[in-house]
Predict the structure of Multidrug ABC transporter permease.
Amino acid sequence: MLAAQTRMEALLILRHGEQALLTLIIPIALLIGMSTIHIGELPEPRVNSVMPRILALAVMSTAFTGQAIALGFDRRYGVLKRLSATALPRWTLISGRVLATLLVVALQTVVLSVTALLLGWSPARLGLLPGVGLLVLGTLAFGAAGVLVGGALRPEIVLALANAIWFILLLAGGLALPAEDLPGPLSAIAGFLPSGALAEALDAVLVESTLPGLQPVLVLLAWGVACGAAAIRTTRLT
């Protein structure tokens, strides 16, 4: 049952046009553009510094924005209410959605990695395994935030709010520009946002070949726990 539910959820994500735009087209376009157009001072090859931020963007797009919007409209059309009335246990419904999101993030990572390698990307090999762990942690943290937004509000509000938050985290989290290049207060708060923390941690393991540091990991854990606890209290099936 879990395998069937995971497969269905993954196919629904991949077949959705807006999801495809968020999960693949925009990240690939930004990866190519930011790696080839000389905006800001980055060491060569630029793709080495750009790739961790794009991976963080891909995770945010799928686990937060995509899940929030999908959950909001599933609630509107009664999908969750009908599924909860079937023989599927609730843990299967939740686990299937989580695993489907992780599968889509894995697919994104493979596609973006192949694109980055063609652009000259040379990641630190010792950082690949920790990088996978950080992607899983980031997916869970952003997924909890997506459930919080999509599980309590009307779908029209979710659609607008999720895209607005995505844009804010893109800019303020240091994904469009490195955190150190952001003006004044933004550079100070970037590391405390989940997008900035994930990008910083991925940069440490994939570029610097060092441990991600305690702060970005704690920031991701804090966001995940806080959003998850709030989502448990506020999420409604309809």
Q: What stands out?
A: Residues 1-234 form one domain. The mean pLDDT is 88. Residues 46-76 form the longest helix (31 residues).
